[in-house]
Prior knowledge:
The chain has 238 residues and is mostly helical. It has 2 domains: 100 residues, NAD(P)-binding Rossmann-like Domain (Rossmann fold), CATH 3.40.50.720; 112 residues, no CATH class. The chain has 8 helices and 5 strands. The chain has a 3-stranded parallel sheet with strand order 3-4-5. The protein has a two-stranded parallel sheet with strand order 1-2. α3 crosses α4.
Amino acid sequence: MERLGRLNLAERRPGRLRIVNRTPQRAIPLAAEVGAEAWPLDRLPEVLGEADVVASATRAPHAVVRTAKITAALRRHPHRPLVLLDLAVPHDVEPESGSLENVFLYPVDALRGLVDQSLARRRREAPRAEAIAGEECGRFLAWWRGLAATPVVRELREHFERVRAEELARSRRHFAPEEQERLDRLTQSLVNKLLHLPTTRLKSFDPGSREGAQRLDAVRELFALGAEPGGGEADREA
């Protein structure tokens, strides 16, 4: 968990990240892991004077970050806020430090409360997130099914358009030139309306299921889709 926390902090790309440790042999590999600088513990006052956020988590039996050190560090930047995250038990930071001006101290208990609030908020939002995910999955499945049915839909529309064009060509001589354009628009509208519901149903079929595949095959067979363009006309005249 400590490693995950360090990596998560590094991913947020702070302007400058330093790891202070009593033992240099331990600080150096930790710093290298997250692209930070390794500093010895005796230079802690210098780090405090330049830091915006300090997270402390040692196993020391007493406070490591003392109020006097923080007070001295603040003199270098008196108007600069300093956030102290005390993650240790017992505390690494003296509680009195929280009363200093521009110092914001968050002991581990307070942080645990913030984490609990965040988790509670996420739990409340979980049903909404699940609903959104369900809706998006439904949209994706509808799109995927429609994509798989597209060839059949295209062939079906081409079949109806071919029939429409043939009938128009046969009947144009019975209509005046000024009526032929209106007739063309009328038949196009009629074909679109006739195909609207079948197209919607075709796109709802699941081509990955046996039933869906059978229905698509049935449409192909029913309208002789994929046959030679002249086949339907020959059959009709026969």
